[in-house]
Amino acid sequence: MASEYLEHKLALLPGLPGCYLMKNINSQIIYVGKAKNLKNRVRSYFKSSHTGKTAQLVSEIVDFETIITSTDKEAFLLEITLIQKHQPYFNIKLKRGTGYPYIKITKERDPQILLVSDIRKDGAYYFGPYPNVYAAEETIHFIQKVYPLRRCTGFQGRPCLYYHMGQCLGACFKEVPEKDYERQITKIKSFLNGNVGHAEKELTTRMEQAAATMEFERAADLRDQIRYIEATVEKQKIISNDSTPRDIFNFYLDKGWLSIQVFFIRQARLMKREKRLFPIVNTAEEEIASFIVQFYQRKNTVLPREILVPASIDGEVIEELLHVPVRTPKRGTKRDLLEMAGKNARLVLEEKFRLLELDESKTTGAMKEITDALGIKPGHKIEAFDHSHIQGADLVSAMVVFVDGQPNKKLYRKYKLRTVDHADETASTIEVIRRRYTRLLKEHAAMPDLILMDGGDIQMNAVKDVLENELDLHIPVAGMVKNDHHKTADLLFGEDDHHIHLDPKSQGFYLVQRVQDEVHRFAITFHRQVHSKHSLGSRLDRIPGVGPKTRNKLLKKFGSMKKISDASLDDLQALGISKTVAQTIRLSLQADPAEVKSPRTPTNL
Question: Which family is this protein grouped under (predicted)?
């Protein structure tokens, strides 16, 4: 049921193409969609019944925006741009890179064949990606033996070792005709495009010639190369006589979950498969169309010559955006492959459902238990804080982040306290909370749905004071309380800091326990690193002639007392330290062996 505010906005929606941005109570964009008719599409969220992820989305919408475009194609492009910019929680999001290597033939006077991790607009030839790095390396080794280009660094006035091995055309000591390179490159391209029959025939001829001239070792080497082709290149079944590089997409939808299968056909073979599972909000056809466009915008992704999709997908818009033919096969091998991708998509989803029931209670279900117990809006992201010190020295704070019940270590943060020089929980909390959320405001970044403090009402009140009175933020804050045995007991929450008792056997309780243990572990680990570094530094400070600059140089270069002690006078003087001070450092450390046994200084602070 839409609020009165939303009802007024729904009545003003135009019947035009465009994009819509759904927002939650914190004004965060949680979903971006496109529509040919904004009025009909956006109203459908509030005027129809929903289940699964769509129902969860609607329950969190408190506002929305629309952007009108001239055509559906423009709306499609804008949708992809907005998804990549805002990374909404309810949208399908893809990683930016494939992580797979490519085989590259460089564009040079004396070209070479390389294995690279990215594609550049440098005029070179690229083949791949290859999901198996070892297989790609072995393929290059084979090509270098059969169709050599240049393996040396260039002209050096004498033949290189590779030339003597028959794996270099000799750019190291002579000018190789460009026609020789062109001839080899033509053969390499043909081989990498799947035409291995010619290579096998040529190798067989050379093997027979070597045997006829009694070059038996050479003949045996050529025989092994032929077997390599049969064992690796020919191992995968040829699925057609058409060597056109093509990608095949199919899907299966059930219970609000979309399973996608992508088959990569290269060299007339099924070279690789990718599978993806997403809970979705829109129709399957619109989600997979958006998926395909995002799929080819990732780093290191080479467009195929052809894309095959089911008949229900609008291929015209995808074809206009990617400039690649998008077709639906009606018969033959291509149709069989498309159907096989669909069957695989269904199989993967059915297997996933058997695990989802177990996982959901531990992740999103646990998060919902906590928000329900606190009486706050449903949320996904928790940020938790803890402090650590030893008798007021080396004060640090740490923050961990849990999204839907799972830790996201990429979002963890460490803080060396700047304004606090003694054990003061209130001052420490005020500084770290002020730094964290002032920065989020400046960056216009998403706020958490809940803040947890490892402590009692003192820390909670300090957090609320900074958030509400300084930053005008209204984020729910709760304290994680421990019992006499230092185990998680319950939560403190509300204006009167009352106890919220969670069932000790519930997933919500287990989640609070995991958050509390993790933030404590992270804070303690960081504190040990800082304390270890300062301990080393204080020992160096006691050596005459060693000031802060010299100490930092030594720690950065050597990392431990043992390595500093073992360093020669020349090594120490190379840092700009005078000979007299360098001798003093060595004598001081060698005179007190206990100094040398200090732990290694961490280098990641």
Answer: Belongs to the UvrC family.
